[in-house]
Amino acid sequence: MKYSKQRELILNTLKEHMVHPTADYIYKVLKKELPSISLATVYRNLNQLAENGVIKKIEGLDGSLHFDHNLTNHYHFICIKCNKVYDVPYDVAPDLADKVFSQTGLIIENYDISFKGVCPECHKKECN
Amino acid sequence: MKYSKQRELILNTLKEHMVHPTADYIYKVLKKELPSISLATVYRNLNQLAENGVIKKIEGLDGSLHFDHNLTNHYHFICIKCNKVYDVPYDVAPDLADKVFSQTGLIIENYDISFKGVCPECHKKECN
DNA sequence: CCATAAAGTGATAATCATTATCATTATTGT
DNA sequence: ACAATAATGATAATGATTATCACTTTATGG
Question: What are A21-55's pLDDT values in tens digits?
Fold first, then answer.
């Protein structure tokens, strides 16, 4: 993988956003900084970074793809109102892969948990 | 929701398939039995059944939508080779919603776990 | 430090799954 | 049986992602 300014910017943008963005969101943000950037480049680099394990893909509620640069073990909380994706710390359910293996014999390579509910931000709005 | 033969057939097809199929798969199966059925009808009814809580939607590895008629609490195992979706019993991780609430304060409405790995069937094939 | 090969880019066309539209048909309660 | 309403089938539209391709940037080795 060769260096490219575009890839660096894409990764930086991802790191700056706690709420894991979609490809299109990153594209719109970067367009301001580097107006010549192409949506195809954003998709290409996000996929490449995900393949190389630098970032991770997350499936949103509506089937949309989000990206996450946080490589430590953790789960996700997806707001059913605004579709934003938040992190949930790993220790709410440690060692799940081992438990599944001992109960089913299935060998788990990895797994995701998506919790769903209304995020604090949207909850506030509802109470107005 | 009015009765329709198409909806009944769609639900039956779903129940007969342990490995949760996609809309397109159900369409192809039903086409043999009821050649006049439309793909749009399959999508319409699956979405409607899911909205009414009769079935559930599952996100596949590749972003594809699968459907599941099993309403009891359980998780899913998705094969990274063949993309088939299997069930994993609930008791490998009971009461997760409560744990998340006590550790984060987030109110969980529901959640899914997708375990990923190579299914026994594909594992056999690899060993030939 | 230039030449060359390999990888990356931007623009746009193509793809593919899912949804929307709409005229027609089936189901339901009275 | 009849009006009201929901469902269907065919097809067009949508929207997100991927492929293509001519051109540019990056890395490297003499």
Answer: 999 999 999 999 999 999 999 999 999 999 999 99
Beta bridge partners of residue B22, listed in sequence order? B66
Q: How confident is the model at residue A94 (pLDDT cuts 50, 70, 90)?
A: confident
List the one residue out of A12, A93, A88 whose CA is nearest residue A55. Answer: A12
Percent of residues, chain B, with pLDDT higher than 70: 99
Residue A12 φ/ψ, nearest 5 degrees: -60, -45
- Looking only at Cα atoms, what is the longest distance across chain B? 53
Residues 6+ apart with CB under 8 A from A31: A37
Is B113–A103 a contact, with Cβ atoms under 8 angstroms apart?
Answer: no
Q: Phi, psi at residue B45, to the nearest 5°?
A: -70, -40
Rounded Cα gap, residues A25 and B85, in angstroms: 30
| Chain B CB contacts of A106 below 8 Å | 77, 86, 88, 115, 117, 119-120
Cα separation, B63 vs A73, whole angstroms: 22
| Closest chain B CA to residue A75 | B113
Cβ–Cβ below 8 Å for B117 and A96: no
Task: Estimate in Å the CA B2 to C1' C24 gap, whole number.
Answer: 17
Report the protein residue whose CA lies nearest the C1' of nucleotide C16.
B64
- Asked if A99 contacts A110 with a C-beta cutoff of 8 angstroms, the reply is no
